[in-house]
Design a protein that fits this description.
alpha/beta, TIM Barrel, 2 domains, two-stranded parallel ribbon, 10 strands, 47% helix, globular, binds zinc ion
Length: 328
């Protein structure tokens, strides 16, 4: 059984005025590795390739540690802990932030929300849209709370507006404009937030780099040409920076529609051997290497939302199902 465990932010403190960036401290990360390591064996990229090739068998309890989004804090805070413990991991990086000092919309939203009250953020978004002649209605509190039960009314309305009222193009445009209006410096933030090419090269040398696309687009929702281009640029940049072969992919966002057979087949043609979704399941075998299920670190032993003990966790695991039966 393979359990893939994904991390994002790792910081010494999470003390922004409005909590919107969540993650682990180095101590929490280290403790969780110790908990997982008590029963499971850690695998790296080479091990997974060997299992796919049939030259190695999948241990009864195996864990692969992954990081998405290429944050510098992952290199600075997580990598030394992993090295010290001798645990392999795979860091999935986006190449455009590193190449062009760009910040993907998803991270701009995290940053704006961390420093802006939700009602103000929503007001700005709506006023930008009004200035453009769009007449979008303010989401009702009730509707928003139905979807985001655990958020405050204001947060629920903001999230509902961003994720359900706006389409992807509108979201990118208005969030970009809002980010600028609020005085955030994209170039400087990008430099602080993402790994450098040198860091990526060092991790790649250790077999610990995979692609997360160029721009952090939901690849399965793009037209064919856009998805392929985004993937191809990311691979080309990673080769250029590292001189290493890149064999793994983590679909940005990882929800079902963000993954696709077409993207998987294209990636395989470009030497990708395996890929992670965010289908929150274990993997009894690696029967569909381009659609390996993966948990958020919160959901596994040692994580904030894991309410079962280690034994119950491993015995209760289900196998991944996405894209197993044809093109669905
Ligand atoms: Zn991501």
């Amino acid at each position: 059984m393979l359990v893939a465990v994904n991390f994002h932010y790792i910081r010494k403190t999470f003390d922004a005025p409005f909590p919107s960036i969540f993650g682990v401290t180095p101590k929490e990360f280290s403790d969780q590795l110790d908990i997982l390591g008590k029963t499971a064996q850690f695998l790296g990229s080479d091990d997974i390739c060997d299992i796919i090739d049939g030259t190695k068998s999948l241990p009864p309890k195996a864990v692969v540690i992954t990081f998405d989004d290429g944050f510098k804090e992952q290199y600075e805070l997580a990598w030394p802990i992993l090295k010290e413990k001798g645990i392999p991991a795979i860091f999935f990086v986006n190449t455009r932030p590193i190449e062009e000092n760009f910040v993907p919309t998803v991270h701009k939203i995290h940053i704006i929300r961390a420093y802006t009250p939700p009602e103000r953020f929503l007001d700005i978004l709506i006023s930008i849209l009004k200035n453009r002649g769009c007449s979008l209605t303010f989401p009702s509190k009730q509707k928003a709370k139905e979807v985001y039960r655990y958020d405050s009314e204001e947060d629920a309305q903001l999230k509902y507006f961003l994720n359900y009222v706006l389409n992807e193009t509108e979201r990118i445009c208005v969030v970009d404009q809002c980010f600028e209006m609020l005085g955030f410096n994209e170039r400087r933030i990008s430099k602080d937030l993402y790994m450098t090419k040198k860091m990526v090269a060092e991790l790649a040398k250790a077999g610990a780099i995979g692609t997360h696309g160029h721009e952090h687009l939901p690849l399965g929702l793009q037209d064919d040409a856009t998805a392929k281009r985004d993937f191809d640029i990311s691979i080309q940049k990673l080769h250029q920076w590292t001189g290493e072969k890149i064999v793994s992919l983590s679909y940005p966002y990882g929800f079902r529609e963000a993954c696709s057979i077409d993207v998987a087949e294209h990636a395989q043609k470009k030497n990708i051997r395996f890929a992670f979704t965010m289908e929150r399941t274990g993997n009894i075998t690696i029967d569909a290497p381009m659609f390996i299920g993966r948990f958020s670190n919160n959901d596994v032993p040692g994580g904030k939302n894991c309410i079962v003990n280690d034994e119950e966790f491993w015995t209760g695991l289900k196998h991944a199902t996405w894209f197993r039966t044809g093109r669905k």
